Amino acid sequence: MTACISHTSVDCRDAYQLSQWWKQVLGYVDVADDPNDAGDEECMIIRPDGGHRVLFIEVPEDKQGKNRLHFDLRPTEGSRDEELARLRQLGATEVADLRGKHGPGTGWVVLADPEGNEFCILRGEAEAAAT
Questions:
Q1: What is the CA radius of gyration of the chain?
Q2: Do 79 and 125 share a domain, yes or no?
């Protein structure tokens, strides 16, 4: 017997705003029969193919310290640096630049979403295969 992951939950101060931001980052959508509205205390987004879901849940306290769990994102098209530029335009902030950590063409960049939740942007698959 095993278990499967139903969804990933993210504690936050504003579930609606953060869900809207992550929809842009991931290309996810609202659950068809449960759309998110401003003021909702819980907002679920889902991959368009019905796969992975992320649930944003409002909590009273602000984030403190480093995440114990985070997303590692890989661009579906283009390079890590192109995706990094897009994420910065959406409002992500850089926490640490670890590009080249294991030699030229390697590494990742640690970013934070508008509420300070860290996530990483990795190289695209074609980019990684070329090195």
A1: 16
A2: yes
Q: What is the dihedral of CA 23, 36, 54, 32, to 10 degrees?
A: -90
The dihedral built from the CA positions of residue 54, 11, 6 and 109, taken in this order, carries a sign that is positive
CB 19 within 8 A of CB 42: no
The confidence score (pLDDT) of residue 125 equals 86
Q: Which two tokens stand for residue 98?
A: 């670890």
- Are residues 50 and 88 both part of a single domain? no
What pLDDT, in 10s, does the model give residues 114-131?
999 999 999 988 887 877
Domain around 19: 8-58
Which strands, in side-by-side order, build the sheet including 8-12? 8-12, 53-58, 42-46, 29-30
Q: How many domains does the chain have?
A: 2
Q: In Å, what is the CA distance from 9 to each residue of 55, 79, 85?
A: 5, 28, 26
